[in-house]
TrEMBL record:
<dbReference type="InterPro" id="IPR037055">
    <property type="entry name" value="MHC_I-like_Ag-recog_sf"/>
</dbReference>
<dbReference type="InterPro" id="IPR036179">
    <property type="entry name" value="Ig-like_dom_sf"/>
</dbReference>
<dbReference type="GO" id="GO:0005615">
    <property type="term" value="C:extracellular space"/>
</dbReference>
<dbReference type="InterPro" id="IPR001039">
    <property type="entry name" value="MHC_I_a_a1/a2"/>
</dbReference>
<dbReference type="InterPro" id="IPR050208">
    <property type="entry name" value="MHC_class-I_related"/>
</dbReference>
<keyword id="KW-1133">Transmembrane helix</keyword>
<dbReference type="InterPro" id="IPR007110">
    <property type="entry name" value="Ig-like_dom"/>
</dbReference>
<keyword id="KW-0812">Transmembrane</keyword>
<dbReference type="Pfam" id="PF07654">
    <property type="entry name" value="C1-set"/>
</dbReference>
<dbReference type="GO" id="GO:0009897">
    <property type="term" value="C:external side of plasma membrane"/>
</dbReference>
<comment type="similarity">
    <text>Belongs to the MHC class I family.</text>
</comment>
<feature type="domain" description="Ig-like">
    <location>
        <begin position="200"/>
        <end position="273"/>
    </location>
</feature>
<feature type="region of interest" description="Disordered">
    <location>
        <begin position="325"/>
        <end position="352"/>
    </location>
</feature>
<feature type="signal peptide">
    <location>
        <begin position="1"/>
        <end position="17"/>
    </location>
</feature>
<dbReference type="InterPro" id="IPR011162">
    <property type="entry name" value="MHC_I/II-like_Ag-recog"/>
</dbReference>
<feature type="compositionally biased region" description="Basic and acidic residues">
    <location>
        <begin position="335"/>
        <end position="352"/>
    </location>
</feature>
<dbReference type="InterPro" id="IPR003597">
    <property type="entry name" value="Ig_C1-set"/>
</dbReference>
């Protein structure tokens, strides 16, 4: 996967039936920046249900269903887990800077981990991915139960963790069993809200006859929505810009896709777009410009009963990654930290 910079602190939902996911994002930042040094976000179906940052030093609920079903002991454990992760990240980001020969500037390090469960097939999957400064650094191949790195700076960590068979076995147990159990519990907590669907309101807008054309979908829930532009029946990929998925104040979402075309291209070709969402079908057949003129262009908006899309959003801050002080030749003597402390409700990261 490609890591990117995001600054939202929101979540999203997916359809209740089929594949389900539990994800955690740990983000660490080093340097002079007006942002928490460490943040942690937990998501079920990409809905943010908990949050922690190093400014408040307290894990808090972000949904009503987790607030109603877990008490003070749970949040005390979550807080302690995140405080421990904060210490690890502070150490690891310094190691990362050393391996990349960096001493100044703003740098980020992130861990994303979690599990997936298909309630129809029973299939499960686990993932654990690290990144540094927005690029892949290290990841777990769950099927092979081994860590791999696309960059030389990650090789020492991959060698060390792959040689720690006990640590790999703990990883296997967590992702195939413990994580799935927590996911199923959270799904039971939030089953009523996870079934909610709201159809998108779709508008086609153009500032002037010579400007780009935008399809704006808003008010939809869950967040799985695609916008596809077509020209003479063929799907377009060039000259198309898709915006970030954004939250509305009422808990729904909005998204915009813009196509860059000249007036002559509009006249000579038939353009349409398809909006896919699990809630139904909406049709829009005209562009409305700022001066009130309507410009018919044969727009087709279709929403099929599509498989809900996984859209990972709303993860706190800059993408970060995790490391421990040690030599680049792999002589680092640290080992896996125990990811399954009986007092913790979730996986604890490793020292790199």
């Amino acid at each position: 996967m490609r890591f990117v910079v995001v600054l939202l602190l929101v979540g999203a939902h997916l359809a209740f039936a089929g594949k389900h996911s539990l994800k955690y994002f740990y983000t660490g930042v080093s340097g002079d920046i007006d942002f928490p040094e460490f943040t942690s976000v937990g998501l079920v179906h990409d809905e943010q249900f908990m949050y922690f940052d190093s400014n408040t030093m307290k894990a808090v609920p972000k949904t009503e269903w987790i607030r109603q079903n877990e008490g003070a002991d749970y949040w005390t454990r979550e807080t302690q887990t995140d405080i421990n992760q904060h210490r690890l990240f502070k150490n690891n980001i310094q190691v990362a800077k050393g391996r990349f020969n960096q001493s100044t500037g703003v740098h980020t390090y992130q861990l994303m981990y979690g599990c997936e469960w298909d309630d129809q097939t029973g299939e499960t999957n686990g993932f654990r991915e690290f990144g540094y400064d927005g690029e892949d650094f290290l990841s777990l191949d769950f099927k092979e139960m081994r860590y791999i790195s696309p960059v030389q700076q990650g090789f020492p960590t991959a060698r060390k963790w792959n040689n720690d068979r006990a640590g790999l076995e703990r990883d296997r147990h967590y992702f195939s069993s413990e994580c799935i159990e927590w996911l199923q519990k959270y799904l039971q907590y939030g089953k009523s809200s996870l079934k909610k669907t709201v159809s998108p309101q779709v508008s086609l807008l153009q500032k002037s006859s010579s400007s780009s054309v935008s399809c704006h979908a808003t008010g939809f829930y869950p967040s799985g929505l695609t916008i596809t532009w077509m020209r003479n029946g063929q799907e377009l990929h060039e000259d198309v810009d898709l915006s970030e998925l954004l939250p509305n104040e009422d808990g729904t979402f909005q998204r915009t896709s813009t196509i860059r075309v000249t007036p002559d291209e509009w006249k000579k070709n038939q353009h349409s777009y398809v909006v896919k969402h699990q809630s139904g079908t909406i049709t829009v057949d005209e562009i409305r410009t700022n001066n009130g003129d309507s410009v018919p262009i044969g727009i087709i908006v279709g929403a099929a009963a599509a498989v809900a899309l996984l859209i990972i959003i709303g993860v706190a801050g800059y993408m970060v990654y995790q490391k421990k002080k040690g030599s680049d030749d792999g002589s680092d003597s640290s080992a896996h930290t125990d990811p399954h402390n009986k007092n913790d409700t979730r996986h604890v990261g490793n020292i790199i």
